[in-house]
Amino acid sequence: MKPSRRNMFQLFTAALTAALPLFSRQTLGAGRPQSRRPWWQSLLAGFKHPASARQLGTWYLRTTPGGDDAATLVADLARHLCQGRPATMAGGLNDLPLRELKTLFRDRVSQDFAEGDTVEVDGWVLARSEVQLCALTALASATAGSGAGTHPGSSPKTAQNG
Amino acid sequence: MFVDARSLEANSEVTCDICIVGAGAAGITIAKELNGKPIRVCLVESGDLDFEQDTQDLYDGTNSGDRYPYVGINRLRYFGGTTNHWEGACVALDEIDFEHRPWVEHSGWPFNKRHLDPYYARAHKYLELVEYNYDVDYWVKKSGLRRFPIKTDVAHMAISQSSPPTRFGERYRTDLRQSGNITVLLNANVIDVEAAATGASITGLRVQVLQGAAHRVRARLYVLALGGIENPRLLLASNGVHERGLGNQNDLVGRYYMDHPVAKASIYYPSRSPADLARFLGPRRAPNGVVGSHIDLPAATLRERQLTNARAPFVEVNRYYASEGIESFHALTWALKRGEVPDDLWRHIGNVATDIDMVAEAVSRKWFDHYLFDSAEDGGIYVFDSMMEQTPSPDNRITLGRDRDALGMPKVNVDWRVTARDRENFWRVHEIIAREVGRAGLGRVRLLRDQGERIWDELLNFGHHHMGATRAHRNPARGVVDADLRVHGLANLYVAGSSVFPTGGHIQPTLTIVALAIRLADGLPDSLARL
Ligand SMILES: Cc1cc2nc3c(=O)[nH]c(=O)nc-3n(C[C@H](O)[C@H](O)[C@H](O)COP(=O)(O)OP(=O)(O)OC[C@H]3O[C@@H](n4cnc5c(N)ncnc54)[C@H](O)[C@@H]3O)c2cc1C
């Protein structure tokens, strides 16, 4: 069943009181080191309501021609997150503790809004970073659903970008 | 003193120094200001002390253009006027509303906000409001209202106040009855303003009692305070000497008519708990009154992005209200009624299917008057029920129609539209607010663009604020009245009410109407002496 706007509402509300939009406290526990998965997968795993995120991501992908290449999306998002922070970029997002990754993402989302770098998806005015993450989750689930062996964004190239 | 015009002998002539026509917010304020002065004042009112249908029917008229409320019921035609059912929301216009804004055609008042401030302060007393102060910090301290944490250069929280609401007819009836220098003439319909043969001044008013006698009122100075639609109607209909009507030498009377379109254009899904939000958003009882809040855009944002003014008050709604299934159901039936296939047909069908419980709730409520699901009442969602400024347009217009009312006066036609630019402006304001809400981490906003054209049609609401059709401008080629609200070219005829507003901002007009009425009344003794 399609997630309703009420679910979207949960997605963008309760979690927002925590530092990182879209993510529950449990999943992104304070100070916990990142698991071995790539940085962006750690972020994906934090979605409070994955179905809503997937739905938003699907809407976005449908209306963004050429936006459905996971590797490009991951690279884009990494660059975007590390904008003005060359040291973070060089150090690699994978090595950041979760708390820092969380803060980085939250600040980026806020900055996107401040800069007007927003995307309208089905009327929702969303930060570009959060929409890209939603798109990644949609791609990830589509790939998983299709039974493809490798996850699109887990290529070594993408991970290094982080 | 109150006099019923029905008790006068036929063809009576009432004389006074100043005649005010219309006992609504504007007319009663002017009369009250002149109370006790050595000036004989006559306040001529069409209606009685209570509502009567025959008199109300004199307000009948037609609409053309976009969908617009029927003008026969939103105004009230008896003592106290439309304040007999107004809601009492009050705010002063913003400073920028008075300015000439190059990106808003025909904008600019003949004076600035600072000039009007002292009159606003006095108007607060008439409207039984708390002190004339709209500073957020002040009310945060004084009323316990918490500052909604949006405070940037881009969007901010603003304050409004609530009048009890003051019913002018009831509230000030005794003062006027006991006045030594004011006569209130009830059941007296002014049907013609008679100009001297020279065309440069007014000599009298023709007054007609419904199914009764005709009379005449003669004064040295006249003020029309009939409301934003009747002021232009009477000027246009008074064409005994000036063929096109009084003050209409430049074809301006009736043009530039404005209202405040009110659209529910976006939904705010907050990140705070409802209890927490109530502390920010709820109207708060201040000593002697109530203050509330909304979000609007500071002058710098309006200037930089070349926007007209708009506001976004928070209105809490429930799940039923925010249901996408019901929304889509309406969109489908709306399109079907017009024989069209809606854009996004499948999305709408999907919405109805996945939100079928709320659609069932709607059907049950409408057809069986029965509530099905308690969950429909779950709250915590807010609609930005947004009131917007209209750019003045000469094509938005009040004209006289062919039909006549029971007294033989031509009825009005209101041709009112929202321009494409104003619609676009409205979405831009909501985008800005949505971004600020996101930036501050307060939740997310969804713009209801998928309502399509319906938002400007069946979903559109109105302020019922009738503004602009006798606009003020120093230059007679661009305004009907001058900065003193005197009709250009007529020595002794003035206009009071929102019809003189050159622009209307995003605020309810009555506080400004009363402030302007006080300002006008202050000047009348001198104007009288100069005649
Ligand atoms: C439903 C509704 C809610 C509103 N809520 C608000 C609000 O919350 N805040 C706000 O600021 N404003 C509000 N308003 C608008 C407010 O009511 C008006 O701005 C205000 O009443 C206008 O005052 P006025 O004196 O110019 O006109 P009116 O109050 O309309 O008075 C005009 C008077 O002229 C008399 N008259 C008319 N024709 C003649 C004639 N030919 N001869 C003699 N007398 C005549 C009428 O009988 C009437 O008494 C609301 C309006 C409506 C309809």
How would you portray this structure in words?
The complex is a heterodimer of chains A (162) and B (531). Chain A is built from nine helices and two strands. Chain A has 162 residues and is mostly helical. Chain A has one domain. A two-stranded antiparallel ribbon of chain A has the order 1-2. In chain A, strand 1 and strand 2 form a beta hairpin. In chain A, helix 5 runs antiparallel to helix 8. Chain A is globular, with a radius of gyration of 15 Å. The termini of chain A are far apart. The model of chain B has no long low-confidence stretch (mean pLDDT 92). In chain B, strands 6, 7, 13, 14, 15, 16, 17, 20 and 21 form a nine-stranded antiparallel sheet that branches. Chain B has a six-stranded parallel sheet with strand order 1-8-4-3-12-22, with helices on one face. At the A-B interface, helix 1, helix 2, helix 7 and strand 2 of A face strand 13, helix 15 and strand 20 of B. The complex binds flavin-adenine dinucleotide (FAD). The site of flavin-adenine dinucleotide (FAD) has 39 residues of chain B, from helix 1, strand 6, strand 9, helix 9 and helix 16.
Q: Top keywords for this entry?
A:
heterodimer; A: 162 residues; mainly alpha; 9 helices; B: 531 residues; FAD/NAD(P)-binding domain; nine-stranded antiparallel sheet; 22% strand; binds flavin-adenine dinucleotide
The proportion of residues in beta strands of chain B is 15-25%
SS field, number of helical segments of chain B: 16
Cα-based radius of gyration of chain B, to the nearest Å = 24 Å
- Counting copies of identical and different chains, the oligomeric state is heterodimer
Distinct ligands: flavin-adenine dinucleotide
The overall number of domains of chain A is 1
Helix fraction of chain B by DSSP (H/I, runs of at least 4): 25-40%
Describe the largest sheet of chain B: 9 strands, antiparallel
Query: If you average the pLDDT of chain B, what whole number results?
Result: 92
Low-confidence stretches of chain A: 12-33, 147-162
Low-confidence stretches of chain B: none
Based on CA inertia axes, which overall geometry of chain B fits? Answer: globular
Q: What is the H/E order of chain A?
A: HHHHHHHEEHH
Largest interface: A-B, 28 and 29 residues
State the distance separating the first and last CA atoms of chain A: 34 Å
Q: What structural class should be given to the helix and strand makeup of chain A?
A: mainly alpha
Give the radius of gyration of chain A.
15 Å
Total beta strand runs of chain A? 2
Shape of chain A: globular
Largest sheet: number of strands, sense, barrel closure of chain A: 2 strands, antiparallel
Span of the ends, CA to CA of chain B = 26 Å
